[in-house]
Each structure stands twice: as C-alpha cells, then as structure tokens.
Amino acid sequence: MQVDVLTIQGAKAGRSVDLPDRIFGVDPNNHVIYLAVKQFLAAQHLGTHKVKTRAEVKGSSRKLHRQKGTGGSRKGNIRNPLYKGGGTVFGPKPHGYDIKLNRKVKDLAKASALSYKAKDNSIVVMEDLIFETPKTKTFAGILKSLNVADKKAMVVFADFEEMAFASARNITSVMPVILHDMNTYDLMNADVLVFTESAAKLLHEEDEEAVVAA
Considering the entire predicted model, what is its pTM? Predict the structure, then answer.
C-alpha cells in the first residue's frame, strides 16, 4: 500500500512510503478486535475494592446473651453482620481483572484495526516533525494543514520526541504515541492515523525483517 508523504504545509513532498499489506491489508477480524478492546478496558480496573468482614471490624468478641431461653434470636457478638457497624458478608475483595490473550491474537487485532483505517482512507503520512521548543499553536496549525484538525487523531512517532509530545499534549483531540505503544483500543477510538515518515518506514523495515525471519 503506497501512501504519499505530505509536508507540514499539507502539500505532497514528492515521495511515498510503502505500508505493508501484511499489516494494513488483512481481512479484519471483528472478534479479535473485541477481545483486545475487552482486555484493554479490563486492565483499567484497579481491583482495589475491599470491605471488612466480621473478623476485621472493630468491636468486642463477647457473646451478647446466652444462646437459649431469652425468647429472642440467637446472636454472636456485636460484629455480627446483622448489626450496624458489623462485618459485611460476601463483600468484594481485591483481585485483578486481567484477561490473557496470546500474542498472535493481539497482533491480529492490531492489524485488523489498521486495515480498517486503511480501507476508510484514514491514514496520513507526514514528514518528520522537528520542534526545538514546545509549540502547541504550531502543532495545531500542522493538523489544520493536513485536514485532520477537526478529528480525533493519533499521531504516531518512531521514537519519543519530547518537544513534539509537549506541543500536542494540550490539544484534546490529539493522541501522540510511539509506534511500538499503539494498541487496538486507541486505534479504533481514533478517527484518523497520522504517521511520521520515520515511523512509517520503520514499520516497513520491521515487516521485511519478519518476512525474512519466517
């Protein structure tokens, strides 16, 4: 899949990059996308919820009255769950919500999400950004030139660019990410993907290495 590289002014730079069909041209699998999104959302649960049982609440362990002969119900101590301030029965305990997915399943989910974006013509490749200082206004102007300013855009860099990331962090519709940090949830949540030229070339090089290794 050949994609023209655009300048920061939105014009064609006169060169193109090849996005591998093995990643951007697969037949999307909706079920694995669902599983990957489910895993991502489940991982956001901290699982720190906790209530105290009758063994943990404060209170005397003395039996309130004798077992029989009072005409009332039998009771234990004041920490009985039936009393205000008593322990909770079958309450939540700390646990993880993690869901295990095989690497091949996660890779297929990511490729499916990228293929959907490719089919929708929602992929843009621009020349590398160079910021000496954070410039949010400049970054916003670049997005406008690329005609993605009014969309939720994921901007993908080959490596961490401190000034570029700082320039984008105050723009609520933009998510700057490193190439290897992309995940299926964010890919599906974005309206358009904006790759820097270096990130797109790195993706192509890694795909060639994988094919040779196979």
Answer: 0.80
